[in-house]
Specification:
With 84 residues, this protein is mostly helical. It has three helices and no strands. The mean pLDDT is 85.
Length: 84
């Protein structure tokens, strides 16, 4: 895993983090349970990868917002490293 920003735009219209995670869990259960054939498994795997990217993008955005809030709460002249 890299520290780069995920490529999915979290602001784009799409499922929430919780919805994406629930869909991903369903896909995992289908594939692991052998409930679907090979071609369907490949399609489900691809959809799962897209959901993972979406979740990562949403988590990255949340992390950035938290960092921004944290930095906004610092007194003038103090940097984040001084508070640790």
């Amino acid at each position: 895993m890299s520290d780069q920003q995920p490529q999915t735009d979290p602001d784009a219209e799409g499922p929430s983090f919780e919805e994406s995670l629930a869909s991903l869990e369903q896909i995992i259960n289908q594939i692991e349970g052998g409930d679907i054939g090979l071609e369907a498994s490949l399609g489900a795997y691809q959809k799962g990868e897209q959901l993972i990217q979406r979740c990562r993008a949403l988590l990255f955005e949340a992390e950035q917002r938290i960092e921004s809030i944290r930095l906004d709460d610092l007194p003038s002249g103090e940097n984040a490293d001084d508070r640790s």
